[in-house]
Design a protein that fits this description.
Layout lengths: L2 H13 L3 H5 L13 E4 L1 H7 L3 H11 L6 E7 L2 E6 L1 H15 L13 E5 L14 H16 L3 E5 L7 H13 L9 H18 L4 H13 L2 H25 L16 H10 L3 E4 L2 E4 L8 E4 L7 H16 L3 E5 L5 H13 L3 H4 L2 E4 L4 E3 L16 H19 L6 H18 L7 E3 L1 H4 L7 H16 L16 H22 L4 H20 L7 H25 L8
Parallel strand pairs: 4-5, 4-9, 9-10, 11-12
Antiparallel strand pairs: 1-3, 2-3, 6-7, 7-8
Helix pairs in contact: 5-19, 7-8, 7-9, 11-12, 12-13, 15-16, 18-21, 19-20, 19-21, 20-21
Bound molecules: arginine.
Length: 565
């Protein structure tokens, strides 16, 4: 039952305003005493040319109460709706139990393609904690859109071209004899990269070596190309370990180098449309609104990051015909994306430029508010190290709490990785994230492990009962704690849609915490395995719906759920 729609229908009967238009105006009031739903009449004031309280009273007088809506009240310009609790409980639980772990799934996005560009690390640089947020936020959006029936293309736009990788190649050619590449070649490669950067600070001429490598690469010289490919392989092998741990999925690893032979088209189209202007030896597209120009060809005659992104966009238009293209990249690249999207628009692809969106996010800070991740010696901690540390810490906690648990290692992996992912997704993405081991692994806090633990509790209740969940008497769930749980369950499908609309997975994580806390209150207040068989059955059914919904929601965040822990 879609209550918002039912309410809109009733208002339509009285006022004639379009039902579809007003469905979204129906709100859930901040506290249940004010009703289950509320309609803000000021939204109709302009159309009906009446004051909101007048509209509210008119609707109240004319509304027909029934099985769905049992009472209405007017408060100022709002009409508050009180629903019939019995039919509410039945409709929510029928739906939630019917769909189980797929509750809230829909085909809303059928026929539409969404391209999500995320993770996209620069090759031959450590996959450090700075890549966590794009990988986790993008990964969750990927799952959310799929759940809503969209065709989703996850793209890892690897930074596999340019000066970064050229520095590593130059360093490798100078110092390869000093390192071993047998065991963990990635470590030696990273060390070379770090060494090159350090040396560059002392001796600025060294950069010429890297420039020279880039020229050789652009010419396709065999030796430089061979080393380049080898470095990509080693890097990817390493990144894939992190992706495996995080459960990240990509449909394409087409990185920047993939567009090398697709840039001529960008330049040709820009020239044909007379958009390329000379500027201090470079070629640029001028931007409106005082925005700095978008550089297409540098004064050294080479193409650049933005040129590649334009080539990638043309490629994505041709190959995916997307209805949305998301770029999950840190806020420091905001200007870059504005310039690229504007250029695409100026090139005549307004339809696509309009649906390109940069999805920025905040920094990761430690508990003192400092940027996180430095190891002694200034090198950044790798994400793999951090994930493994979290898994180890989780294992210690499990050893202490439940030493006889089978498959402890596997559970520790789900808990340790889940804790890091949840911490990343638990607040509005634009806010800075605080990385604090104690908090993110706190089984009683607002954390991933807390939700996993709540899920495990629901499963243990189900295991201990052998009731067949049929012919449930929903009248047994009319106490206020149960109603609160059911209210949270009822909102879940809309929460998923909102999370997609705002590209904000934290809406789901916050909602799951609310749901789990409501369930805890219900659990503490009422004995689930009670003597009355009808009550027991109904409570177990509610427990199952909560467990399934937590599992579904955690899944959308990219977090796995153990059956025991
Ligand atoms: N490689 C870039 C970086 O690490 C991110 C790439 C984002 N995607 C894109 N299409 N520009 O900063």
């Amino acid at each position: 039952m879609n209550y918002k729609y039912e309410i809109a229908k009733k208002i339509n009967k009285i006022t004639n305003v379009d039902t579809e238009n007003i469905t979204d105006y129906v709100e859930v009031p901040p506290n249940p005493e004010m009703g289950d739903f509320a309609f803000p009449c000021f939204k109709l004031a302009k159309d009906l040319k009446k004051a909101p309280p007048v509209i509210a009273n008119e609707i109240k007088d004319k509304i027909v109460l029934d099985d769905i809506i049992s009472k209405v009240e007017v408060v100022g310009g709002y009409i508050n709706f009180f629903i019939n609790k019995k039919s509410f409980v039945k409709s929510v639980l029928d739906e939630a139990l019917g769909k189980g772990e797929e509750y809230g799934k829909s085909d809303l996005g059928k026929g539409k393609t969404i391209v999500i560009d995320y993770s996209s690390p620069n090759i031959a640089k450590p996959f450090h904690i700075g890549h966590l947020r794009t990988t986790v936020i993008g990964g969750s959006l990927y799952k959310i859109y799929k759940y809503l029936g969209y065709n989703v293309v996850g793209i890892n736009h690897l930074g596999d071209w340019g000066m970064g990788v050229s520095k590593t190649i130059a360093g490798y050619e100078m110092w390869k004899n000093e390192y071993s590449f047998d065991e963990n070649p990635i470590n030696s490669i990273l060390a070379i990269y770090v060494r090159f950067n350090k040396l560059e600070k002392e001796d600025s001429t060294i950069i010429e070596k890297a420039r020279n490598v880039l020229i050789r690469l652009e010419k396709g010289e065999e030796e430089a190309t061979r080393i380049w490919k080898w470095i990509i392989d080693i890097s990817l092998e390493n990144y894939k370990k992190v992706y495996d741990l995080l459960g990240s999925e990509f449909d394409s690893y087409n990185g920047e180098a993939f567009y090398n032979d697709k840039m001529d088209r960008v330049i040709k189209e820009l020239e044909e449309k007379e958009l390329l202007k000379d500027s201090e030896g470079a070629k640029v597209v001028e931007m409106p609104d005082n925005m700095p120009p978008c550089i297409i060809i540098t004064s050294a005659g080479t193409t650049i990051y933005a040129t590649r992104d334009l080539a990638a966009l043309l490629y994505r238009i041709d190959n995916y015909n997307f209805s949305k293209a998301l770029y999950v990249v840190g806020s420091e690249q905001a200007l870059h994306f504005k310039q690229v999207f504007k250029t695409l628009e100026l090139m005549g692809y307004e339809k696509y430029a309009k649906v390109c969106e940069h999805i920025p996010f905040g920094l990761i800070l430690d508990e003192n508010g400092e940027k996180i991740g430095s190891r002694k010696g200034g090198q950044l901690l790798t994400l793999e190290e951090i994930l493994n540390e979290s898994i180890e810490k989780s294992l210690e906690i499990i050893e202490e709490k439940n030493p006889t648990l089978e498959n402890k290692e596997e559970v520790a992996k789900m808990v340790g990785v889940g804790a890091i992912i949840f911490n990343d997704l638990s607040n509005n993405r634009i806010k800075d994230e605080i990385f604090n081991w104690k908090e993110l692994l706190n089984f009683n806090g607002e954390t991933g492990p807390y939700l996993q633990y709540t899920y495990v509790r629901t499963r243990s209740i189900l295991r201990n009962s052998n009731e067949v969940l049929e012919n449930i008497d929903y009248d047994m769930l009319l106490d206020s704690e149960a109603i609160e749980v059911i209210r949270k369950l009822s909102e879940y499908p809309d929460i998923i849609k909102n999370a997609a609309n705002k590209n904000e997975p934290s809406l789901i994580s916050r909602h799951l915490i609310d749901l789990a806390q409501c369930f805890s209150r219900f659990y503490n207040e009422h004995h689930i395995m009670c003597d009355n068989i009808e009550t027991k059955k109904a409570r177990i059914a509610l427990t199952k719906a909560v467990g399934d919904t937590i599992k579904s929601g955690l899944g959308l965040l990219g977090i796995k759920t153990p059956e025991r822990m």
